């Protein structure tokens, strides 16, 4: 996949804007690599969100401080985002979103020195399903997956093909999503775990809950990357 890095990110711990040619259009991302990174985590947003999601950016900042590189993506092209703003249909097109995550994984493999880093995926909402399908598509590359308040159930039969160790994080006050995650956990055959953040609702807006998400995710990636 063609792409470019428009501002230096290697070793600086500051975001660099990137564009990735998916074969179906151009998607944008922000790549941040700290000095001596131990791995790279690709973020898959969902449900109408974007790489500018304040919650995922907060988690990404914690990861960079923990020596993990991050790539925050817009999974839709500019034209697709305009369509989705009206129809809200593309944000639920899990196969399409998964293909975009796969495009990012393949693009990273062409970008020195990022290409030598072990890859993890972090998905939120519908992006969690896209991350899991991408992990199933690239089992030799993706080392770990983390879902935050995600909908892993939307990955359907693809769950049984996921080999990367998978952590599902759900708020204790998000009962519907919690039940969906429990059901998805049973369908996964890889190393997997479900962690519940007490007192957290779906968006982890309660004080301290997002920090718990970051801590859990970082520990999981450290163990498996």
* CATH class (first level) name: Alpha Beta
Rg, alpha carbons:
16 Å
Can you tell me the CATH architecture? 3-Layer(aba) Sandwich
Stated plainly, the CATH topology is called Rossmann fold
The CATH H-level superfamily is Alpha/Beta hydrolase fold, catalytic domain
Sheet with most strands: strand arrangement = 1-2-3-5-4-6-7-8-9
Count of the domains:
1
Stretches where pLDDT is under 50 for at least 5 consecutive residues are 1-12
Portion in helices: 25-40%
Largest sheet: 9 strands, mixed
Decide which structural class fits the backbone.
Answer: alpha/beta
What key phrases describe this protein's structure?
Rossmann fold, 9 strands, alpha/beta, 225 residues, 24% strand, disordered N terminus
Task: Write a brief structural summary.
The chain is an alpha/beta fold. Helix content is 35%, strand content 24%. The longest helix has 16 residues.
Description of the molecule:
The chain has 225 residues and is α/β, with parallel strands linked by helices. The protein has one domain (22-224): Rossmann fold (3-Layer(aba) Sandwich). It is built from six helices and nine strands. The chain has helices at residues 54-65, 78-87, 94-108, 126-137, 175-187, 209-224, and strands at residues 3-5, 16-21, 26-32, 39-44, 68-73, 119-124, 142-148, 166-171, 192-197. Strands 1-2-3-5-4-6-7-8-9 form a nine-stranded mixed β-sheet, sandwiched between helices. It is globular, with a radius of gyration of 16 Å.
């Amino acid at each position: 996949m063609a792409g470019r890095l428009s501002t230096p990110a290697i070793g600086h711990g500051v975001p660099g804007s990137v564009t990735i040619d998916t074969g179906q259009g151009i998607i944008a991302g922000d790549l941040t690599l700290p000095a001596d990174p131990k791995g790279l985590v690709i973020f898959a947003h969902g449900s109408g969100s974007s790489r500018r999601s304040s919650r995922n950016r907060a988690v990404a900042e914690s990861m960079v401080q923990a020596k993990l590189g991050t790539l925050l993506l817009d999974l839709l092209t500019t034209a697709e985002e305009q369509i989705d703003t009206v129809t809200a249909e593309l944000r639920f097109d899990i196969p399409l979103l998964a293909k975009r995550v796969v495009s990012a994984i393949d693009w990273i493999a062409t970008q020195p020195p990022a290409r030598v880093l072990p890859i993890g995926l972090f998905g939120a909402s519908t992006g969690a399903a896209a991350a899991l399908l991408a992990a199933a598509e690239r089992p030799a590359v993706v080392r770990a997956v983390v879902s935050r308040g995600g909908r892993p159930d939307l990955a359907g039969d693809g769950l049984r093909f996921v080999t990367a160790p998978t952590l599902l994080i759900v708020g204790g006050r998000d009962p519907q999503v919690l039940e969906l995650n429990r059901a998805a956990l049973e369908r996964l055959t890889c190393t997997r775990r479900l962690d519940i953040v007490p007192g957290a609702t779906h968006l982890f807006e309660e004080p301290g809950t997002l920090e718990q998400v970051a801590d859990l995710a970082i520990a999981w990636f450290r163990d498996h990357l």
